[in-house]
Write a structure and sequence with these properties.
CATH class: Alpha Beta
Radius of gyration: 17 Å
Structural class: alpha/beta
Shape: globular
Strand order of the largest sheet: 3-2-1-4-5-6-7
Number of strands: 7
CATH topology: Rossmann fold
Bound molecules: NADP nicotinamide-adenine-dinucleotide phosphate
Number of helices: 7
Oligomer: single chain
Number of domains: 1
């Protein structure tokens, strides 16, 4: 069911987005992914994907780029997108005590406004032979809230709502699902040892692997009766009482 599907992944040049793209590419999908500006990293990512994969540079801070991106991806992949994975996000810490328009605006733009616009343009084709799929990459934090990463978390809360709203709006031509990973990769400024010590302190005793996320997306791609729902891939972390974000050490 993945073979020959045209897949667009935002932020597919590294970490979760890249590993998901590699899995879908190996399963026969035609993958386009976005990156912000580091061409050599994008070329490294492309080297792990099948030869028909494409990397598209774009800045998701600019709303106008949403439509251009979709047109570029459709041209590069040879037709309308079948599966969109809204994966890109900006993860900067702020709290109610430190939030400013400068911390909030970019995170809401990249994590909420631009993905909504990309979804709008991807789904503008009203005649489809087969149902398309939108995957919104969320975060287990939305069910286990704690005070760190306020702006980032607000974007994820809103994207979960958008998942259900758009699932209603887009049915029956498109399904829309959320995937909410637990602590999969370390935060940018986090000490690797701290990450290694904390990521497995979850009910199932081991944090999620990126391939768990790829497998969940493959499952959702083959699940024609699931829409408007979110899968939590967090080894049970959403059921834990947590004072602070895992990555916070002080
Ligand atoms: N990592 C985790 O443990 C974890 C846990 C829960 C949820 N998640 C969610 O899973 C998704 C992927 O996480 P990740 O850790 O793999 O992400 P990441 O390493 O932080 O990568 C984010 C991606 O977004 C892109 N991006 C950010 N700002 C952009 C902008 N202005 N324009 C264009 N692209 C931009 C980055 O591009 P560049 O590389 O070019 O900057 C990068 O490809 C995110 O939605 C995240 O919230 C991750």
């Amino acid at each position: 069911m993945i073979e020959n599907k045209r897949v667009l992944i935002t932020g597919g040049n590294r970490r979760i987005g890249l590993e998901v793209g590699v899995m879908l590419g190996k399963a026969g999908a035609k993958v386009a992914f976005t990156y912000r500006g580091d061409k050599s990293r994008a070329e490294d990512a492309l080297s792990r994907l099948p030869a028909n994969a494409v990397a598209i540079p774009t800045d998701l801070l600019k709303s106008d780029n949403a439509e251009l991106l979709v047109l570029d991806a459709e041209k590069a992949l040879g037709g309308p997108i079948d599966i969109l994975i809204n994966n890109a996000a900006t993860f900067e810490d702020d709290t109610l005590g430190s939030v400013t328009p400068e911390t909030m605006t970019p995170q809401i733009q990249v994590g909420l406004i631009t993905p909504i616009l990309i979804t709008r343009y991807v789904t503008r084709h009203t005649h489809r032979d087969q149902m398309g799929l939108i995957i919104n990459m969320l975060d287990y934090k939305i069910i286990n809230p704690f005070p760190d990463y306020l702006s980032y978390s607000l974007a994820k809360f809103a994207m979960e709502g958008f998942t259900r709203l758009s699932a209603r709006y887009l049915a029956p031509r498109w399904r829309v699902c959320g995937v909410a990973p637990g602590y999969t990769f370390k935060a940018p400024d986090e000490d690797p040892q701290h990450f290694a010590e904390t990521r497995d302190k979850v009910p199932l005793g081991r944090g999620p692997r990126p391939e768990d996320i790829g497998e969940a997306i493959m499952f959702l791609a083959n699940a024609p009766t699931i829409t408007g729902q979110t899968l939590y891939l967090d080894s049970g972390a959403h059921m834990m009482a947590q004072e602070r974000d895992f990555s916070i050490t002080n």
